[in-house]
Design brief:
The chain has 219 residues and is α+β, with helices and mostly antiparallel strands. It contains 9 helices and 8 strands. It has a 3-stranded antiparallel sheet with strand order 1-3-2.
Amino acid sequence: MRHPIDLETLGTLFLHRVAPVAALLHIGLSASLIDQRSRPGGPWQRLFPNMVLLSRAGPSREQLVQAALLYTGEGAMLTAYDALYLHGMRSILPTADAIHVLAPRNSRAWGHASLRLERTDRLPKPAIRRGFHVAPLERAAVDAIRRTRSIPDTKAILEEVTHYVGVQALRAELALAPRKGTTLARKLLGDSPARQLELSALTRRPPAVPQARTPQPIS
């Protein structure tokens, strides 16, 4: 005889309490029950299409990141600020901005208010930080720079990431990136002799592996 599903402890079966609707249907829940429990004020929440948070609390940034990656599907990875934060960059603080995800060109997912989806044919090999697939440090840095118009933020990102991957890796990534949003970074990483002396000072320290971080809840 099949035992009934304990809906109160169901969330413990899913990483970060984030469940695809397909998985809930597969274990025996009905579509009507899922819909009922996911209505405003109910014990569950809809995060992205067909993604449910099995809790009435939150969502935390970590739960949104998990839902975004599940929603965008195989091959997707975090980039920009969330990726830099998980890589351990100190110049990047927790943010409530949209989660930036790279996805294959044939992805059927769509962007939302809290999800910036970038379909691309130039998907890098992801790194794994805190269990999440994230873009390599130089790609995440360039994608973050493309989203900011702040000169201090751009400089802070370039200077910190340079310590770990070097100037040439950032230049190579910039050469492949769209020109929109990267003009300042290209100037800062220019080839002038004066700039080369300044950049050499940034790369004197031996590279180290930054400590990965866990995204903080959105306040």
